[in-house]
Amino acid sequence: MASGATSATGLRRGSHRESVVSSSSRNRAYSGRGTNSPPLRKPSTRSSTAAASSINDVERRRTERTHITTTTTTATKRRVPIKEEYRPSPVRTRAPTPPAAPWLPEASLLPPTAAPLACRVSVPPLSSELPLNRAPIPLEKMDVEMQEAAILEDLLFVLMGIEGQYIRFQEDYNPSDEKERLLGPRFKIASGLDPSLRDLTKTVLKMATYYAAVDAFVEVQSREEFGVVNHALSAAIRKLLQDYLVLIGQFEHSFLTSPSFTLHMLHLHTMPTANILYQLYSLAKEILKKNAMLEDEEDDDSMDGFDDADNFIEQFIAGNDGAKLPGSKICRGGSVLSLLTQRLASMAGDPAAKALLSSLLREASRPYMNMLNEWLHRGVIHDPHSEFLIKEAKSIKRERLEEDYTDEYWEKRYTIRLDDVPPQLEAVKDKVLLAGKYLNVVRECGGVDVSKEMVDVPRTFEDSKFLDNVNSAYAHANTSLLELLLTTHALPARLRSLKHYFFLDRADFFQYFMDISNSELSKVAKKININKLQSLFDLALRQPGSIAASDPYKEDVKVQMNEVDLTKWLMRVVSVSGMDENAMNMDTTSHGAAAATSQDEKPITGHYALELDYKVPFPLSLVISRKTVLRYQLLFRHLLTLRHLEGLLSQSWKEHTTVYTWKHRSKYPQVERWKRRAWNLRARMLVFVQQLLYFCTMEVIEPNWAKLMKRLDEVKTVDQLMQHHVDFLDTCLKECMLTNSKLLKIHAKLLTTCGMFSSYTSHLSRSLIAADPELAAPSAKFEEGAEAPQFDPENMVKLNENLGKYEHNFGRHLKILLDALNYFAATETVVLLSLCARLQMAQSRNESEAEQVVAT
Length: 856
Fold this sequence. Notes:
By secondary structure, the chain is mainly α. It has four domains: 117-291, no CATH class; 365-449 and 456-488, no CATH class; 490-578 and 604-624, Gamma-tubulin complex, C-terminal domain (Four Helix Bundle (Hemerythrin (Met), subunit A)); 627-778 and 790-855, no CATH class. 56% of the residues lie in helices and 4% in strands. The chain has helices at residues 15-30, 49-61, 144-158, 178-183, 195-221, 227-257, 263-290, 309-317, 334-346, 351-378, 408-411, 429-444, 466-488, 491-502, 508-516, 518-521, 530-541, 566-577, 591-594, 606-609, 626-658, 660-663, 669-714, 718-735, 741-759, 761-771, 793-827, 832-855; strands spanning 66-68, 73-78, 106-108, 167-169, 187-189, 390-392, 414-416, 557-561, 610-614. Strands 1-2-3 form a three-stranded antiparallel beta sheet, with no helix packed on it. The protein has a two-stranded antiparallel ribbon with strand order 4-5. A two-stranded antiparallel sheet has the order 6-7. The longest helix has 46 residues, at 669-714. The chain is elongated. The termini are far apart. Residues 152-486 form the Gamma tubulin complex component protein N-terminal domain. This is Spindle pole body component. GO terms for molecular function: gamma-tubulin binding; microtubule minus-end binding. Residues 1-104 are annotated as: Disordered.
């Protein structure tokens, strides 16, 4: 064992042990060895001739017969012959004792367990149950040499976990209790043993405790629920225990054939083996503590280690009885390898322990490396026991990508078990995750042949090509997926298509759509016919000469209504946690249910509720995910609102320049001053909306779009590609002032004021005619000879008051916006300075013009 303890040979507990040693040993244990028979060999020196002859006579007269019944249990019966009492001196004689009652110990066959190689024979009867008439000869009646022979014979049994005549289990030890077997038996030595022999016996008995505990550990860890890494570790330990049993067989041979074999020699020969068994015992005890099968001082009842709720539910539904309940702690997979690595580092100064732990780590890592190679080279996880460092959430399926607004498929389907990462993979765990994720996408698109056998891949952590294998697999997977996205599925063309539709780039078709659908969009959002609107949109897309007519992806664009106002929707998002992932989780297809408006809120019209949707096929949906499409929709609604207000204000300008009421000059100076004020306010609003629209498109979206296209040419990894795309959208949202709650509020008030004023123009015309009837169109004037209506100063006062409210509102909020832009340009983003300069010029010019108008 000293030389073979560290070798990785196998052990099957049932067949091999009985074939090598245990068949004769167990027969002796069950056959009533606890009688007053002497040791099986003669004393080595100075024994009396009479005693020797008496022992030989007894041995010659010993007969054994074994009968095995064919019932449900296997029973071993022995007929005990009439024994002569041991006579140390031929002078003393004693009458023979009457035959003792037969002792019938039985062994039953246990039902099979999840550990296929576990022993299925029941625990043998304890020596404490032995009848008194079968008690062995007391040690006090033997000399030292006879005591040594008796103890040596007992130790050969005890070292295999079987009680002896003079060495037995302590009374509080129960071999049927799994926890006590895992801790190892505690032994007691019969009284009367020589002190020197007792000390040596106690030292050797430690090895018996270690062996029994490690043997029980192998049985427990071989169960199915402990995973393939524990199974491989148990198999490696089982090989060592087989070598140990061979060593015990060699000791038994020496005991029976060599009179010079002593207890001291046994102790010397077992010292290296005892050290090996102690290392195995310490390792087993530490693993069992992590499994909560043994008490630990730092034990807690937390559920932090339970991270596979989805897999547990699926196993439970599938009827897997081996599924562990939430909160149960199991040390398996990467945790076992981490523990072995840590112990190997701490035992670097002990050559024997280092060789042993290196062998165990090498064998235990083989199934783990198989899983790692499957993941790195095929993008597949075969992990039925949840022990690999990559966790797969099987409940998140590819089919959910069309409704996935949280990027769950990419972000949460495959994650790292941070507590189960082996130290060997700690530095490259992110590469391992990404390599498998990339290859998994390529495999689902038919780009990986999973039937091809993997060759020339490392099988253990000790392989020199271990890290090179991870790096090369990562580079291959990354290149394959990038080529699939950028070339095969034409990602840049898809992004340009999105830009045309959502950012209204060269959107002549969209203006045509707005014109033909104006009557439908003027309705309340709830009353709009979506099918009719979609038909009109398809008609606009197919207009000859438009950029959309030649777009191969135009069929993927759909029209839908969002009944929640854009500002309210953005305020809800920003008030949660900014424009982060968690804030974008709300489903835009169900805005009415997710953010229902109260009854006193005015419903919005179709112009403000219109938004586009875009269907993206897999695997492009990983880059253009629902989360990114939502960002596109927010920007689209913002730009559409500005375009709609620009159209309304332009329509007001058209009315102001063509309608007789506004075009005809009044003879009352106060009416003309009022008209100039209205024209000036309308011009200021139009300049504000146009400058804001120009800023969002030409100074925010276009420069950032150019940067994105440049980064696509230089991108190295798929995750960089995805991050660049999200960064582009987030930057556009931020610089368009859609992520700042203060700017949002001011911005919303200004746009609301502009919208109300543009829709108020027709009412202003009627109020103007009521104040000065001379401004009515000639066809609508009073009949000839009738009394002409007079100028109404009261109506003029009301017009001045109403117009003054619009001027005050717009001017005040514009000044607040300029102050806020100056502040945030200095603290957050410099790009707002250009907008601030444009709006300031417009404000100062318009204010000076207004002052001149008022003065005249």
